[in-house]
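Troubleshooting: if your tokenizer reports a length mismatch, compare your output against this known-good record of 429 residues.
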Amino acid sequence: MFDRTIHVVDGARSPFLKARSGPGPFAASDLATQAGRALLLRQPFLPTDLDDVIHGCAAPTPDETNIGRMVALRLGCGAKVPGWTVMRNCASGMQAIDSAIANILCGRSQLVLAGGVDALSRAPLLYSDAMVRWFAGMMALKTPAAKLRHFLRLRPAALLSPVIGLMKGLTDPVVGLLMGQTAENLAWRFGVSRRQMDEYAVQSHQRALAARAAGHFAEIVPVVDGSGAVYPEDDGVRADASLEGMAKLKPFFDKPYGAVTAANSSQITDGAAWLLLASDAAVRRWNLKTLGRIVDSHWAGLDPAQMGLGPVHASTPLLARNGLALRDVAAWELNEAFAAQVLGCLAAWESDEACRQELGLPEALGALDPERLNVDGGAIALGHPVGASGARIVLHLLHVLRRRGGGRGIASLCIGGGLGGAMLVEATP
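Known-good structure output:
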């Protein structure tokens, strides 16, 4: 547990917009700026009063290098407020929060804007190495005749087969597996069936729809594109999600034998999320009301081929350090990278063998109450803009706890590369 109180003052996020046939209507910095501006406008302090702006981003475009600083300036924080960017794959937004916590704990900062963003629809197409070498060869030539001969040696396949940046980003560079293939590993290991995955995915959409109807996504601020079109809510939630419809989709990552499909996986999405974190001194100075506090956090490493068990590896030590059992946690936000991954985590906690092998425990930790898990749906329905998701689940968890009467909750996610992150939070009564 932290030795000082880390307050969450407020937070906001953009709608999560599903990637479709091309670049979405917003750059990542646009989404972050609009969500951040709405958040800061309702505060009793000025943007220039912030001590730091920390932003997580897993896939910035070339013209958004150090997007944290870029957005800080666009938000009116001024030249003297530092802004910087962190990257921990799927947990980049949570890492930004943890970095803010570290600065507050050491006394370096009192008031910090932290969050994450990604516009995955704008992930670039890249030239292959062969094509890059061809361009380099062309530039080295001096005469028109030599350049013509070089051009005629070009094979169209080299030009017309670009490297898809998003697919590279979603592939583990050490074990060579797509993230979805690691989910297939968990499905095989724990006997998670295709029907169980699809049932969980349908539930995610149904819960998100119910939450929207009940007004449980108050943290969303509408965004407006350059033509004046307004985007008020997450657009990937499907009212028509059904087992029958999902059963028609073929496996994507392991076509002959797999069960993980696009429908029971998280969506490729654009979105941004922010939290305002403050010390006791900042709360007193500005007379700030708070959503809650961050109690503790934990990061863990594991086998990259079993990446989806990251929440198990990160949350279990967090529980132990704070004297908690699974049943003591009032609400959980477990990022839904894949239905197979979430269900695999639940199965691991219930397995004596897995708890011994993965966690060094003498027996199973137990069952997690499904009525406390992702009660308003998750990334399967809402989307997974990689850099933003870690911040989103922390923010939404605090809102869930507050409307349920308080208590403690855990936000956790698996992270590409074989990592897990978790935060223990407590809502303000």
